[in-house]
Amino acid sequence: MTRYKIFLRIAENGNFTKTAEEFGYTQSAVSQMVRSLEGELGVTLFTRTKHGIFLTSDGRAMVPHLRRLCEDYDRLLSESSAINRLEGATIRIGTFASVSANFLPSVIKAFKAIYPNVQFKLLQADYETIQSWIFEGTVDFGFLTTDVAGSLKRIFLMEDEMVMVLPKGHPATQKKVLLLEDFAGEPFIFLDQGKKSEPLEYFTRAGIEPNLQYRVYDDYTIMNMVEQGLGVSILPKLVLYRHHQNIEVRSLTPPIFREMCVAYRSDDNISVAGKTFMEFVVESAKGRR
Question: Do domains 90-157+259-286 and 159-256 have the same CATH topology?
Answer without folding.
Answer: yes
